[in-house]
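To fix ideas, we close by showing one paired sequence and structure record:
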Amino acid sequence: MGIVKYFEATTLGDAWYQILYKIMDQGRDYLIDKGSFEGRQRLGLSVIVEIKFPGKKPLAPIMPEGMDVSIPTTEEDINEYSTYLMTAVRQPHEHYTYGEDLHWLIDWVIDYYKKNGYGTNRCYMTVGRPETVFFYDQSVDYSDVIFVQERVSGKQPKPVLGRQITNQWNKDPGNKPSSQCLRGIDTWIDNEKLHFWAYFRSWDHWGGFPVNLGGIQLMKEHMAGEIGVQDGVLIASSKDLHLYDHGWKEAYKLYRNWERVDEFLNKSTEEKG
């Protein structure tokens, strides 16, 4: 059995349910030794999920009728979060926001694809290194074509060896007390569709996954529209996607009634076509 669990899903809701079941069924139980929930427990897995139709509405998971389970997020929450994701606004109590790093990268990537075309070009939007964006051409040697675009306007990009990306990407600038969970989003265009691959170093499945991916999907739709291409697949991965112990009760209600949940999901999929 591999260390990473791979999922293929049709919608964001389908992905959330599939992973929820697998975490409850096979997740590793461990004690949190530091961070916001120090001393608590969580169940976690390393996952990769490919969502084929991430723009299918609703984006938020829907609960089976009559099941007494609190919903993890709403369409309103996702829409509000997507706006927050694409601006530099940060509240006084927040250590960081993803939007601080992403808001200028969004426009940069849109402009880059417009000016340079699609082909085999792709751009990597970094989080935690807000002064840079990586981009490269897959048609030639990877290590020779990694460039860093600096945030300073007008400065020419400089080449960086491909193997150096990981170190730069995972090293925080030093002025933030918390390390961001979302580390970056890889973007590429294939067959006139914009695709995303997002990586989270650590991720709350119940409260984070549905609103985070919902907001990222809306950001992807916005960027695809600005570039002039169609919306594509959304792939997400995390070495530690987990459920905190304070959410186990709600998750267990779904897990122990999985036949009912599965029937509901199959019916919903058929209705969406």
